[in-house]
Amino acid sequence: MDDVVGAIADPVRREILVMLHGGRLTAGQIAGRFEISRPAVSRHLRVLRQSGLVRDELVGRERLYEIDPERLAPLAGWLAQFVRPRGWEHRFDALETEVHRTRRRRRADSAADEPKEDTA
After folding, report:
1. What Pfam families does the record point to (predicted)?
2. Which CATH code is given to the segment(s) 1-72?
């Protein structure tokens, strides 16, 4: 996970990942969107490739780059512990709590309604 964190520490590399999230791109297409030199973009791509976040494939004379989101999963899992559940996850937890509360209340009500045996 350290190599992934190191790779995404640079804002250019994060921007490249965002670009590749939309689909495969050549190095030239990626470099064309930055104000930095092509060799600098190549160095960023090499770091991303070495971390496993990006893979490349030679297609004809072009090398296409694509993101490998599976490498981000351990980092996302680690970060999730610091984020409160939002949306459906939080709502399902609240629903589960309410279901348990209702079941407990019904059991208590049905136990109170049962006729007691006259043992005397």
Report:
1. HTH_5
2. 1.10.10.10
Q: Tell me which residue has tokens 């490249």.
A: 16
Give the residue ranges of the chain where pLDDT is below 70.
Answer: 85-86, 115-120
- What is this structure's pTM? 0.65
Joined tokens for residue 34: 């930055």
Written as one letter, the residue type at 70 is E
Round to whole Å and give the CA distance between 45 and 56. Answer: 10
Report d(CA 73, CA 55) in Å as an integer.
Answer: 16
Q: Phi then psi for 103, rounded to 5 degrees?
A: -60, -45
